[in-house]
Amino acid sequence: MLLRVSLRARLIASILLVLLLSLGAGCASAGWNAARSVRAEMQAALVVGEQAVRHGLEDLPGSQDTLADLQQLVQAFDGDRHVRAALLDAAGRVLAASALPHPAQPAPGWFVRLVAPVLTPERLPVETEAGRRVVVLEAEPLNEAGEVWTQLRDSLAILALSCTLSAALVSLVVGRALRPLQRVSTALAAVGAGEYAVRLPQTGPSELAGLTQGFNAMAARLSLAEAQNRRLHEQLVTLQEEERADLARDLHDEVGPFLFTAALDAAAIEQAAATGQHAAIPERALAIREAVGHMQRHVRAMLKRLRLASPVEVGLAPALGNIVAFWQAHRPTIAFTLEISADEDELDEATKAVIYRVAQEALSNAVRHGRPGRVEVAVAPGDDGSVVVRVSDDGIGMTDVTEPGLGLAGMRERVSALGGALQVVGAPGGRGLAVTARLPCGAEGGARPATAAAA
Ligand SMILES: Nc1ncnc2c1ncn2[C@@H]1O[C@H](COP(=O)(O)OP(=O)(O)OP(=O)(O)O)[C@@H](O)[C@H]1O
Ligand SMILES: [Mg+2]
Asked: What's the confidence (pLDDT) of residue 339?
């Protein structure tokens, strides 16, 4: 399984690694310097001690008691922190030795071993009346090592403290800086779950401000698109319900009376046959045949309406006639006109479908938004071999659009997919709106993008 380490942990770990490496390098360099300084100090102390002993020995020939003077010379080193002096007889026995002070801050044994230099003791022989004596001077690193150890320990403690503080500070700053990312991730998960109302506050470092702005813009567009979808769906449902109600009315108004009269005629025939009035029967039978024929035509028309695969399958003129009739029936106070002067046979299916869709949406917009008294639909040949569909109304015209819908955009997309152009302008005369789509005539084999919009 892939181990996911957070960005924060990675940053802190890498910074800690650098700090620890610096700390290690600092320790190594300090240890090396400490060993050098202890050695230099010890060597210097031995030289000074040797000079002091030589001076003392120079005065010996005039001495009354050479042995006592030698012992005094050795004891003059009492309290010396770096050199121990001793007086030995010819057999190497210690006759006198100086006392070393105890280090105030003793260094641990490993550190003393690490920094203590290996120095050969100085041996200064003296001939006395009692025989040969030797003054031995030996370097003693305990005190110097203790001193260096104290300095080193304090410096390392300060370094370690500053490393810890830096790591804590970096952790804090990185944590605060990355908090907005956590919010972005939560918000994205919410959007993924379909909650488009979520928005991010515009806070945090400048690098993330663009991200939150982009997120908010995306969420806003998504909620808008969702609202439009919902509205379209509601419209669709309404249209379907109106269509069903229309069919029900047709059945009721057109078929119902004929069924009723056919039933009456059948009963009359039955009665005429029973009472022997055979002369009345052909007239009644003809009436039944006419009623059945009427019903057949209506039922076939309704079946066609139900089974239409393409709205223009019936032809552009009847299809446009249907929408105009539909709106006329639902808005009887508006005067609708439809004028088709273009030759339908010169248009291919895709062009007819786009003409239909443009007229459908522009008509619906005019009725829904324009409050018009008159709406005109015209399909005419253009002057450059194109076909022009135009829907104009005398309504309130285009006001400030606060919430753009999908209708105009959809029309524009369909028209430009066929290589045409769409214009939405105020209608001439100052009132209302005119939507004009100019399309190349597809049936003549004009240039046509491969992805022509279908209905
Ligand atoms: N004939 C018109 N008269 C007045 N205003 C119009 C007319 N046609 C369009 N508009 C304005 O233009 C806006 C955009 O129209 P569009 O068809 O793109 O969206 P919609 O009709 O609001 O929603 P949708 O078509 O997605 O259901 C409308 O909301 C309306 O304000
Ligand atoms: Mg619309």
From this structure: 97
